[in-house]
Amino acid sequence: MTSTSQRPEDENLGIGSNLLYGLQHVLTMYGGIVAVPLIVGQAAGLSPADIGLLIAASLFVGGAATLLQTLGLPFFGCQLPLVQGVSFASVATIVAIVGANGGEGGLPVVFGAVIGAAAIGLLITPIFSKITKFFPPLVTGIVITTIGLTLMPVAARWAMGGNSSAADFGSMANIGLAAFTLTTVLLLSKVGSATISRLSILLAMVIGTLVAVAFGMADFSKVSEGPVLAFPAPLHFGMPVFEVAAIISMLIVVMVILVETSADILAVGDIIDTKVDSRRLGNGLRADMIASVVAPLFGSFTQSAFAQNVGLVAVTGVKSRYVVATGGLILVTLGLLPIMGRVIAAVPTSVLGGAGIVLFGTVAASGIRTLAKVDYRNNMNLVIVATSIGFGMIPIAMPSFYHHFPAWFETIFHSGISSAAIMAILLNLLFNHFTAGNSDQQSVFVAGTERSLRYRDIAALHDGDHFIGGKLYDAQGNEVPLQDEDDHAPRARTAGATSRDPAEATS
């Protein structure tokens, strides 16, 4: 490994630059880090004050985890510019556990599940590299896509007003406010300024809230109730409760988080051109898991690296880990201000719904982008994707589907993400690892999808052109020379010798 003094991430830009760029990192991920406690708090039926405490705890723990990841301790922290925060991957599973355990009373079960699953994740980090082959893009893409899809009902409910028993639930005023916020997100995303575009969701929520205030649709009267400055109270929502089924369900999420964090660590290492070996990767994963073990004690959830901040490092070219560590300090400071959490909790639910459509849809789109990397030729991957996502949608389309199953079974499979992940892992093992007995014939479900040709690949062919023995001949039987795009002179070659050959082209 290169010496510490030579590593690009060890450059210190000074207090002023660290504060400026660190604040940019915080603003980039702020909407994402507060969304999770907002979703969970509303699903649990918490008061605005308690939701504010969840938000403050998420900010505080996210900041502490960022400091651990960037500055590092022995065996913990990869010392790379990675921002940590509460993971979106766990939202659907948390909401399912909360729902299965009676709202607010389900939070201790959630905290116990996070602690138990993260502890297992911490134990397996030394061998995780050996089991990542069971979590290829096929599996992670299915899981990420399902996360986004399972959260769309939450966005729709928010857009309608959030409280189904309220007189204005589903009113044109609520949906109109959500539509205005959504439109604002899209317009800000189109603005030429990269900074405004990256902050489009956060800015749209601010603008939507101001419009709501103007029309009397926002209530900030409870913001002043409670302390302005306070340390997150440990175990405010009760002692963690450990249920095996909930832990198993959360363990699936933890495995996905480990895969995602591994990808983020490797990606940021590549972006800043620094060496990331197995020890450094392991240190980063252990930081993720120990932060996730501690987080529930303060009222937060699973922690992971934020991919959008990895993108920010690439865009700005600022490689210093001390910049991100400064961002961590800002998050810790915000976490000590519960009044900030109460302000966010007072944002009208319809505003959150408009922003949530884009936010949750982006998660699904990220999964689809991952699935686009999967090879669907001469295999059953298309069937695996179809079956797994379909299986994951069952509890979303019909929430009572598993009501007559054993309680432990319902806890696991009532979460769409758990259902999809388990099915994806099992089918991937069945068809792609235990290949004995696989048919050499295409399934009827994927027949015809194996290959296709682009028009530009055949535009130069003439009537009567044909292939024999891997060579192209015209109607008179003369061999037609084939050439690469960068060749200056044609030369005869076999069709199999180049990936540019029309017979081998795929869409």
TrEMBL record:
Region called Disordered, residue ranges: 481-507
Family as reported in the entry's similarity comment: Belongs to the nucleobase:cation symporter-2 (NCS2) (TC 2.A.40) family.
Chief localization: membrane
Keywords (A to Z) from UniProt: Cell membrane, Membrane, Transmembrane, Transmembrane helix, Transport
Protein name: Xanthine permease
Organism: Ectopseudomonas toyotomiensis
Superkingdom of the organism of origin: Bacteria
Topology of this chain in the membrane: Multi-pass membrane protein
GO molecular function: xanthine transmembrane transporter activity
GO CC field: plasma membrane
Cellular location(s): Cell membrane
Membrane spanning stretches: 20-39, 51-68, 80-100, 106-128, 135-159, 171-189, 201-218, 238-259, 322-345, 351-371, 383-405, 411-431
Annotated PANTHER family: PURINE PERMEASE C1399.01C-RELATED, URIC ACID TRANSPORTER UACT
